[in-house]
Amino acid sequence: MTNFSQEWDECYRKNTQMSIWPWSDLVSYVMRYARPDSPKYRVLELGCGAGANIPFFSHLGVDYCAIEGSPSIVGKLWEKFPELKKQIVVGDFTKEIPFEGQFDLIFDRASLTHNSTKAIMQTIKLIKESLKLGSKFIGIDWFSTLHSDYNGGMKAEDNYTRCNYINGQFTNVGRVHFSDKGHLKELFSDFEIEVMELKTVHREIPQDNHTFAAWNLVARKAERND
Questions:
Q1: What residue ranges in 83-191 does DSSP mark as E strands?
Q2: Contact 62, 34 (CB under 8 A)
Q3: Residues 39 and 100: beta-carbon distance below 8 Å
Q4: Is residue 147 within 8 Å of residue 178, measured between CB atoms?
Q5: How many domains does the structure of the chain reveal?
Q6: Is 164 exposed, middle or buried (0-12, 13-18, 19+ CB in 10 A)?
Q7: CB neighbour class for 33 (10 Å; exposed up to 12, middle 13-18, buried from 19)
Q8: 152: left (phi over 0), alpha (psi -120 to 50) or beta
Q9: For the domain that residue 112 is a member of, what is the CATH number?
Q10: Torsions phi, psi of 14, nearest 5?
Q11: 69 lies in some domain
Q12: Which stretch of DSSP H or E encloses residue 211?
């Protein structure tokens, strides 16, 4: 059984959720905390979507790979980036990372956040196995429990996971996972968390009292003494 939301494949088939520009927070975090230092630098993106971040990593000249659950969008990416056809694969990253060898950087931008706590924990274990010692995972826009929509939708598998939104940014995207500081620290207890930042944007006009809140984090695979 796959954890990938078929709702996302439907979005891509309808050409919605088609972000094509690199996410500025990701660019900033990579250059600040995990700057590539050689052409052999290996990068893995979990849930590349419409490929917004691919031009950024192509410009850096690194070895880029990606796992994406939607066959529809992967087919489009193969047409757009034929040189990456073997490096962008259809798969469920909560079950398997189908690349040999380890990576210097693994990252996602609001992709793991569309899974249950159990599936996220499974993925983080795979991330640890697939990272070189001392290398890093960067997570961008992991939705916070301070987000206005945390109290919307319906409870799914656990207290941090919601589903069945009928309005707002999470309409028709399946599961949405929210985290507080303690939950994130628990999820990444086998890593050294180097950076954890909470960003909030409160909407003043229209005055609907809506707050977007999400975490950005950097977690390093470190040797443990226990």
A1: 88-90, 103-109, 131-143, 154-155, 161-163, 176-177
A2: no
A3: no
A4: yes
A5: 1
A6: middle
A7: middle
A8: beta
A9: 3.40.50.150
A10: -95, 5
A11: yes
A12: strand 211-220
Range of the domain at 108: 6-220
Q: Which residue has the higher pLDDT, 124 or 9?
A: 124
Q: What is the pLDDT of residues 88-114, one digit of tens each?
A: 999 999 999 999 999 999 999 999 999
Quickly count: other Cβ atoms within 10 Å of residue 151's Cβ: 9
Cis check for the bond before 71: say yes or no (omega within 30 of 0): no
Q: Which of 17, 1, 8, 42 is nearest to 136 (CA)?
A: 42
Residue 15 banded pLDDT, cuts 50, 70, 90: low
- Position 37 scores a pLDDT of 87
Ramachandran region, residue 28 (left: φ > 0; alpha: ψ -120 to 50; beta: rest): alpha
Q: Is the pLDDT of residue 45 over 60?
A: yes
In a domain, 12, yes or no: yes
Phi, psi of 174 (to 5 degrees): 75, -140
Beta carbons within 10 angstroms of residue 18's beta carbon:
14
Closest CA to 36 of 71, 63, 9: 63
Domain-embedded: residue 226? no
Which structure tokens are listed for 139? 């997570």
Check pLDDT > 60 for residue 226: no
